């Protein structure tokens, strides 16, 4: 086998941890590569193609590779994955993922097929930029949902309010209140405002997530220093944008590290995100630890620290409502894939139905 200069992958995130994962494959004539873009049965990968003269190649080549069949053990590749390819440029191994941004996919499948109803947006991400436009009504509930997704991935979230030049009176206090543990910054990609602060927070592989019209591609271009990704203006009526970015794509950052731009998210369904929700609502979790009862529902129980915080104004009612909503959704998704939980939920609804029928019968008997 020709010599391979693995260091040529450094601009794409190659480090000692990835090298250790690839070490067992060295004897199998495999070549390490990173997926930078997916396209159905094929993908673009960055790979140090074999060469006997290291000096003749200044960077890893971006080549087209064939992906495994859908029934393969390594199907479901995504942008950011580290893989091994063979001499025929076919992906033959998937290296372990350190982190993964996973959402519930919009699917019409029955419960029996629900285990495949998730979508990995990006893998091996170190920092997630949760982007939202700051020139309109800032949706705190959407930010909380995206934060839960980011925390669950294992990466560090940073909330970025874009288009700050169009919102001179923009306040970050209400956003910081819903993002404990995450930095919150306001930036303008067009004027450069706040970009130095944001760049100081970047480390390793950075992924941008957010709705269409949030300015992700414009921000990505500013970070990359060139117009790599196409951009579109948003509609004036509702400040919404079209899906300018249609693929998740990874690019090296000029100052080191890599960046993954993602299409706008219309829906952000949570997938097994219990830890992510707890991190997002760590303020409520901390208050709940001081409730009189360990199973307090924060409703009418005496000695509820959460209700007390709401009554004193220290915690908004909206925050608790959002916390409950995301927990209910997460439990529902878990029940779709867990036979025991699904059976328990079915029993609860059967009991409710029986009680309702009995109540109607008794009400009818009293009326006769």
TrEMBL record:
Its EC number is 3.6.1.-. Keywords: Cytoplasm, GTP-binding, Hydrolase, Metal-binding, Nucleotide-binding, Ribosome biogenesis, RNA-binding, rRNA-binding, Zinc. GTP binds at residues 162-165, 210-218. Its main location: cytoplasm. It comes from the Bacteria. Binds 1 zinc ion per subunit. Residues 123-266 form the EngC GTPase domain. It is an enzyme of class 3 (hydrolase). Zn(2+) binds at residues 291, 296, 298, 304. Its cofactor is Zn(2+). The keyword Lipid metabolism does not apply. It is found in: Cytoplasm. Residues 114-268 form the CP-type G domain. Belongs to the TRAFAC class YlqF/YawG GTPase family. RsgA subfamily. Monomer. Associates with 30S ribosomal subunit, binds 16S rRNA. One of several proteins that assist in the late maturation steps of the functional core of the 30S ribosomal subunit. Helps release RbfA from mature subunits. May play a role in the assembly of ribosomal proteins into the subunit. Circularly permuted GTPase that catalyzes slow GTP hydrolysis, GTPase activity is stimulated by the 30S ribosomal subunit. This is Small ribosomal subunit biogenesis GTPase RsgA.
């Amino acid at each position: 086998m020709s010599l391979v200069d693995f260091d040529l992958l450094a601009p794409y995130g190659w480090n000692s941890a990835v090298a250790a994962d690839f070490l067992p494959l060295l004897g199998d004539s495999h070549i390490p590569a990173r997926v930078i873009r997916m396209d159905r049965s094929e993908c673009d990968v960055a790979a140090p193609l074999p060469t006997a003269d290291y000096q003749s190649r200044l960077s890893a080549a971006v080549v087209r590779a064939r992906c495994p069949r859908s029934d393969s053990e390594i199907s479901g590749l995504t942008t950011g994955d580290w893989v091994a390819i063979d001499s025929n440029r076919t992906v033959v191994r998937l290296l372990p993922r350190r982190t993964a941004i996973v959402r519930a996919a919009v699917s019409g499948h029955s419960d029996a097929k629900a285990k495949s109803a998730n979508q990995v947006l990006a893998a091996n991400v170190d920092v997630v930029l949760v982007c939202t436009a700051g020139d309109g009504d800032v949706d705190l509930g959407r930010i909380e949902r995206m934060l839960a997704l980011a925390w669950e991935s294992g990466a560090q979230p940073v909330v970025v309010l874009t288009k700050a030049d169009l919102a001179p009176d923009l306040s970050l206090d209400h956003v910081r209140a819903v993002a404990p543990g995450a930095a919150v910054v306001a930036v303008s990609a067009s004027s450069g405002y706040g970009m130095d602060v944001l760049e100081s927070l970047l480390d390793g592989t950075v992924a941008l997530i957010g709705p269409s019209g949030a300015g992700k591609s414009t921000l990505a271009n500013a970070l990359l220093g060139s117009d790599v990704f196409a951009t579109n203006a948003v509609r004036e009526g509702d400040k919404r944008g079209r899906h300018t970015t249609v693929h998740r794509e990874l690019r090296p950052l000029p100052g080191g590290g890599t960046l993954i731009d993602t299409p706008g998210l219309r829906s952000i369904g949570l997938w097994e995100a219990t830890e992510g929700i707890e991190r997002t609502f760590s303020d409520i979790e901390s208050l709940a630890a001081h409730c009189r009862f360990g199973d307090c529902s924060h409703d009418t129980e005496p000695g509820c620290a959460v209700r007390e915080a709401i009554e004193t104004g220290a915690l908004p009612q909206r925050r608790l409502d959002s916390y409950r909503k995301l927990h209910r959704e997460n439990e529902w998704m878990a029940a779709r894939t867990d036979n025991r939980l699904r059976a328990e939920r079915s029993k609860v609804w059967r009991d409710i139905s029986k009680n309702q029928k009995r109540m109607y019968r008794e009400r009818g008997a009293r009326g006769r």
